[in-house]
Amino acid sequence: MRNRRFTGLAAGVAAAVVLGGAAIAVSGPAAGAAPTPAAATSGGVKFAYYDQWSIYGNAFYPKNLDTSGIANKLDFLVYDFENIDPTNLTCFEATKATSPDESNPNAGDGGGDSFADYQKSYTADISVDGVADTFNQPLVGTFNQLKKLKARHPNLKIVVSLGGWTYSKFFSDAAATASSRQRLVSSCIDMFIKGNLPVQGGFGGPGSAAGIFDGIDIDWEYVGAAGHTGNHFGPQDTANFTALLAEFRSQLNAYGSSVGRRMWLTAAVPSGQDKIAKIQTDRIGQYLDYANVMTYDMHGAWEAQGPTNHQAPLNNAPNDPMPPVPPGNGKYNIDAAITAWTTGSSAYGIPGGFPANKLTMGFPFYYRGWTGVAAGSNHGLYQAASGPAPARGISQVAGVAYYKELGGIVDNPSTTFFDPVTQAAYFYNGTEFWTGDSPQSIQAKADYLHCKGLGGAMMFSLLDLDPGTTLLNKVVTAVNGSAPGCTPTSPPPTTTPPPTTTPPPTTTPPPTTTPPGGCSAPAWNAATAYNGGAVVSFNGHTWLAKWWTQGDTPGNNGQGVWTDQGPCGPTTPPPPGTCTVPPWSAANAYTGGQQVSFNGHKWQAKWWTQGDTPGNNAQNVWTDLGTCTS
């Protein structure tokens, strides 16, 4: 994720610093068969980041989230970023500026902005509820405004993010031992969840910020790999990251149980194959509610002389000039990242196995650009440059600009282009080349995430938006919809079933044939790709897929993707209205694909949910499968 005040790069690909990527790969059909459309999901969760520094030169306050309608369109608001104390290796609060020098190894040491968090007084005109702060309040600042925002939008969940580009230096140290992990986690929960802020400037104190945050977001850039100059990292980070998430999950659950609240744990995770390889993708899903994949910053003006390239290409392009990512031959793109997280990549030693319905795809609201770019044969794409595009007045960093700073370019049809191969948008005005999203590329990515069964979208960041919230509106609309159809792309080698496993046509039972053992569900087939919610029969039992799968034998797979629904029932259906799936319970947590009964109907969850009543919830998480008949 971009560092605070936008002074650094979220990912320097040329320097092997990369962000984002996640999802799932839909494999192709058995050898010799024509591609068949895969079932698409619809809807999805919406995350968006609100930057700590938004209140300064931009005067973008939490009130704007209310008056613009943003808060009503989100499920999660992520407040970024908090830091780790370099000495105590704990969460802390301080007011100390960071250095904008990317080569400074101590740029973020001890940095923080407790003034913004809980010491800035708000006048009535910029306060969420129109009420000015008073001198004797224990809590003011953004924290108090977020508290007011939650009061107006009770369904909005707010989590606090720890780390980011500039504040990830000491993650490795804090995660190194069981005692250091326990100390970090307990300090973060005490300060930001229990709200025991240190008294500074006359504000704070025990419980002063209690109830504001619903959980914690971990943004470690990067696990076992270089990030900002000076960051501590090593091979031990791989296992320690998993252990750190386990500790956060354990302590958050314990606290949540004590107060009767659901506490959330999320993480921003990378998209580069070389970074994903440092994470136990098949283990961390059990601790996280969502992993927000930073599917952007794959290219930018840190590659000062070019060639220009897309910062968030959905697909690989044969003519992409990027050198392959060692030790394999892959290049950075969203599809490669999604495949790595869910299915795995043998070339990079990535096991995959992360549940697709817990992954969100990242959408950047900012652009990366070059100047001195010749048109070439394709409006500046893959061309040399003279350097980063000039800094704009608000973002103030060469090579980077917010959407709201590029009026006349990113909102101008004459300078907007779309690459049909990578499904990425780019912008060229004859001199400057900018890479980022357009409505067309947003729709393409939303269709992809629906076809892959992903959990939803993450947006970074709200500060970058224009007053009309153009990009956010498009992301929300696209994610709330569904893909028109999903045609599998060529399957990766590791997921293509060998020809010998393809059953001969004569042995494939016709659809009207009831599988042996009285099972009415189709028989499981190792060569078939199943989406979450699919039901099959195997060994006389009915099985429900939790997420996308292919080749995982029901009852005998390490990922636990199949849920045993019990022995196959009688072939004679029960009377209408008889529900045999478990009844819905407000106290239970359900994952995407799980089925329940409620009010005589059968319902299927689209993604993780708890407490959302089937047929009566704003997020529309439950799909009505009709009157119960089985």
How are the strands of the largest sheet arranged?
1-2-5-8-9-10-11-18
Mean pLDDT, nearest integer? 86
Rg computed from alpha carbons, rounded to a whole number of angstroms: 25 Å
**How many distinct helices?**
11
Helix fraction by DSSP (H/I, runs of at least 4): 10-25%
**Global outline:** globular
Biggest sheet overview? 8 strands, parallel, barrel
> By helix and strand content, what is the structural category?
alpha/beta
Extract low-pLDDT stretches.
2-38, 489-517, 570-574
Could you explain the architecture of this structure?
This protein is α/β, with parallel strands linked by helices. The protein has 11 helices and 26 strands. It has helices at residues 62-67, 70-73, 114-118, 141-152, 171-174, 178-193, 237-259, 273-276, 334-342, 439-451, 470-480, and strands spanning 45-51, 76-82, 95-96, 112-113, 157-163, 197-200, 203-205, 215-219, 264-269, 290-293, 359-364, 366-371, 387-388, 400-402, 416-419, 424-428, 433-435, 456-460, 535-538, 541-545, 562-567, 589-590, 595-598, 601-605, 609-610, 622-627. The strands form 7 sheets. It has an 8-stranded parallel beta barrel, surrounded by 4 helices. Helix 6 crosses helix 7 (237-259). The longest helix has 23 residues, at 237-259.
